[in-house]
Amino acid sequence: MKISVCLIVKNEESCLKECLQSVIAFADEIIIVDTGSNDATVAIAQEFTTQVFSYIWNDDFAAARNYALLHATGDWIVSIDADEIIMNPEKMRDSLVALPANIGGALIELESHAHRPDGTKDIFSINLLRVFRNSPHIRWEYCIHEQILESILRAGFSIQHIPVRYFHKGYDLSPDQMKQKHERNVKLLTKHLEKNPKDGYMWFQRAKTYRALAHNRQAFADITQALKYLNNNHSAKPQALNEAALLAYQDKDFITSVQFANESLNIIPQQKFALYICAESLYEIGQYDVAISCYVAIKDMKEQSTAAMILGDYNVPIEQVDFRIGKCYAAKNEWDKAEHSFRAGLSVNSHDVGCLVGMANCLLKKNAFHDAYDYAGRALSLAPENQEIKKIYSFLATQIAAAPQQQILRDKKPFLSLSMIVKNEEKYLQGCLESVFGLADEIIIVDTGSTDSTVAIAQRYGAKVFTHPWEGDFAQARNYALSYTKGEWVLYLDADERIHPEAKIHLRQLLHSLPDDIGALLCTIHSPHRQGDEVSEMHSGSYPRIFRNYGYPTIAFQGRVHEQISPSIIALGKSIVQSDVIIDHLGYDLSREEMEKKLQRNYQLLLQHVKEQPENAYAWFQLGQTLARMNIIKEAEEALQLSLQLKGLAPHIRASATAVLAQLCGNTKRFSDALRWAELSLEAVPEQVYALHLQAYALYYLGRYAESEKVFTQVLEKRHLIGSQQSQAGFEVHIDENLIRQGLEAAKKAQGK
What Cα–Cα distance (Å) separates residue 133 from each residue in 101, 177, 388, 748? Predict the structure, then answer.
């Protein structure tokens, strides 16, 4: 079976390469029709295919697409736009091979994003016909919003869905760009309707475009014409009725909106979007129970019917449905049921702003001001321009400050303490303290010589600030802070770190529930490492950042730099377990000059450390890591190898050390050594994806292409687990999917595949 990928393009240099990279895994040929580019589009296209054709633009998208079809020789056509990528290209070929002979077209799922003015985004998912058999009887129709469906049906074929997903960036534009796009479309649609005044489908398309331009009067006039000319057998009739329902809803004519939506549902009952509009209108007229039944019907619809997919029914995000069910219950003053729905939505998407605000309101009704404040704060961090959320957040802050129980809490022994050391951190400190506001009962900060506003910022957040001269020893400074810390549990952070908002919901409850034999929790640190002016590489690792306060000096930090608390915890016979707490670390996302300064400081401290403790394996490991970042390769390898020879490295640290050695050997083209170190890394931590990736490239450069292909495939399959496997992997580097695919394709090509 041969697959042809067909595109029409014009001035797409910003996105074409990423699009084409997403199809090379399955494309047997790529046909590109250029309609008049004056940028680098054609040159980029020619990097991927020799079949690049020029076409004089004549205001007809279907004609241009059909010109591409004339040059296609594959059994199947995959149609894609330059501003789209295929998210799971490995599914394409197997999906098409499995289709029976009567299937002439395949529906794919297309996801697109649009940003709201408050900074949040809408996520849309729709099924579209983008894959079809190559037949002279199957051709695109309509000059704009071109369709292939009717042509496929007339040729006697049926339609089926395949599990291929596209991502479309073309509607994630600025308001001005979107306006220009819609105005261009109106001109093309008007030109067509002047020649074809009874074309109901194009009246419908122009109505949608006018609504997008906020010209609702023209939109309603057009949709009336569309409904006049479309019969119930036309695939666009239910869509036109849904558009009419949406226009009526926006005009606050909710009764009419329900009528149009019900008429659409009478033609095709299993439609999520029609049910959604119906429910929204019923909510507005106070019919909350009926609205809930519509929303529940959407949730209960496990799979859309093929008929609904063909008409382009939107997949409404489940968290949005849960939010609206909660809203209905809140309107009925059934707050427990509302809270249950909002929690259900957050279990699907913890960043849904509506559900976060809903939870804040539910908890406010219970006078649970601290918890409500946490939810409102998370919502505000996602939608910082939303004025309503700002009002709720400010109100809750006032309530917390005025709450009489606060004095009682101050008199009690704190449960959770934040312990920090700082120096000249005015750039970062406020963000760090904001992230733990309401979570920690006390904040202990040791300042080692700030000359900026660091201390003043700390005091604004109620921190107890102590001064301690800097003596070139991070552990010493942390232990000084630890000596003042009174909480049963200690969380330690740096100023350039932020604890994820989700931790505020459950962390205190989790700590209360832990058995006495657990002495510390591992947290996952996400740390972007700046690789150039525009590129950052994301590293993840697990570190014990929350621990029981057994009292200083019973427990104490060790190490001049990259200090550790875990040896003290282990010495007490206590266990350290993984948690789901995430901390964002900004300290390595620095300019080259800032990073060089930081590395040089760490290098000097680590040199002193290994002189004082030459048998300390962890100190040698950190010295090797630092030398590698400084590009001092020979000394880095010697330090890392010495760390492995000494005793005391935990398995995930051994995995990290050997992975760095594999990377260094690979960078210097010593691929046999690179393979050996990668395999040793995988022996230490078998679930580590980064070492697997290094192994794949080492195998490729050693000419072991079949083995390389197999390992690259494993990397691709496991890549999505990065971040969820920290208890096993210890550390990971988030790998660019395109880099994996390039390696996989190179391995296949080397085998003649």
Answer: 10, 34, 51, 26
